[in-house]
Amino acid sequence: MADAHQSAVSPVDKVRFESQDGIAVITIDRPHQRNAVDLDVAHGIAGAVDEYDARDDLMVAILTGAGGTFCAGLDLKAFTSGEVPILPGRGFGGLTESAPRKPLIAAVEGWALAGGFELALSADLIVAARDAQFGLPEPKRGLVAGAGGLLRLPKALPFQTAMLLALTGEPIGAELAHAHGLVSVLTEPGSALAQSRELAARIAANGPLAVRATKAILTMSTAYDGAGGFESQRELVDRVVASRDALEGARAFAEKRAPVWRGQ
User: Fold this and answer.
1) Span 220-242, mean pLDDT?
2) Which of 12, 20, 192, 246 is the most buried (most CB within 10 A)?
3) Using 50, 70 and 90 to split pLDDT, how confident is the model at 229?
4) Which of 83, 97, 109, 138 is catalytic?
5) What are the φ/ψ torsions at residue 234 (nearest 5 degrees)?
6) Residues 117 and 53 in one domain
7) Catalytic site includes residue 255
8) How many domains does the chain divide into?
9) In a shared domain, residues 180 and 143
10) Among residues 18, 51, 118, 188, which one is catalytic?
11) Are residues 198 and 237 in the same domain?
12) Does 2 score more than 60 pLDDT?
């Protein structure tokens, strides 16, 4: 087993970064504030994402919250003091407008509300406890979910369900969210992070070049159809097919052994 690596990416330790066996875990660590996002948290998440993307030994990252709650969204106390946790080019929480190049899993316990839900929607996969709740309550406060929630929600839920959730500001439970496909994996309470690690390990076992290209193509797929889509993915696909990893994958299959990926 590889050695665990830990580093603090926020100067005040509001965000923790840990890595082991190719998997990074980014934890918002403000349990007494329900992991609400202030400017320190935004910088912490951005720094964690940068470290994750920069390290070739990391294949998958997990975003989670400490103390049984994912994230309650914007820190309203900090906001009323003039603090806005939106970073240029990165968006709310340092994430919603600049997802990492590699896969990101949201491990959700408790509540994922407002900007917290928008952080979860920024992930590629959501693993949630059965009793978790998701919501965009902004209209109840005279606000709009402008950090990607309204853009991403109709892609994750049936349109009318997304409209109902967004217009009323009322939450949706994880079991219903799972039935509609928003939640990828449903777990027992307290198990979201463990199940996310298991899912991350399955992804990390695959070829790193193939995983990154697959995420990139799927992410841009909604913007293309027909010939345009094939043309847009051609460079990514060709690069993977011509890689040493592709040849290694074929050889490993023929030789009935586990592949040894080099990321080349």
Assistant:
1) 65
2) 192
3) low
4) 138
5) -60, -45
6) yes
7) no
8) 2
9) yes
10) 118
11) no
12) no
